Amino acid sequence: MRRNPSSDISSGPELSDELRLLCMLHNIGAIASERSLTIQQISEWTKMENPALQSNLQKLVELGYVQFIQAEGTDKYHLTLDGIRKVLSIYS
């Protein structure tokens, strides 16, 4: 069976750092407040440096794709419903 290259996300245009991070957060399951992750946890999963990670997270929060919460005195992040929709629209 021949594979359709247009269905492969890597064959499309280069994703911005913010959108790549959004996809990674989706893929590692940070999709609800009870599954929120700290910057340290996100950094471990994504291998992104902390300053770039914080900058990208802030942009995603401003766009409404990621929500910041404080849980047990710790800053955490997870995708919003709009963030999940954005990720799914990239794959469709």
SSE topology:
Layout: H1 17-27, H2 39-46, H3 50-63, E1 66-71, E2 74-79, H4 81-91
Antiparallel strand pairs: 1-2
Helix pairs in contact: 1-3, 1-4
Task: Tell me what you see in this structure.
- The protein has helices at residues 17-27, 39-46, 50-63, 81-91, and strands at 66-71, 74-79.
- The protein is α+β, with helices and mostly antiparallel strands and 92 residues long.
- The protein has a single domain (15-91), classed as Winged helix-like DNA-binding domain superfamily/Winged helix DNA-binding domain (Arc Repressor Mutant, subunit A).
- Strands 1-2 form a two-stranded antiparallel ribbon.
- α1 (17-27) crosses α3 and α1 (17-27) crosses α4.
- The longest helix is centred in the middle third of the chain and has 14 residues, at 50-63.
- It is globular and about 35 Å long.
Characteristics of this structure?
92 residues; alpha+beta; Arc Repressor Mutant, subunit A; two-stranded antiparallel ribbon; 48% helix; globular; disordered N terminus
Distance from first to last alpha carbon: 20 Å
Do you know the CATH architecture?
Answer: Orthogonal Bundle
Low-confidence stretches: 1-11
Q: What structural category arises from helix and sheet content? A: alpha+beta
Oligomeric description of these chains: single chain
**CATH class (first level) name:** Mainly Alpha
How many β-strands, per DSSP?
2
The major β-sheet equals:
2 strands, antiparallel
Total domain units: 1
Helix content: 40-55%
Question: Beta-strand level of the residues, as a percent range?
Answer: 5-15%
Rounded average pLDDT: 85
Q: Spatial order of the strands in the main sheet?
A: 1-2
* CATH topology call: Arc Repressor Mutant, subunit A
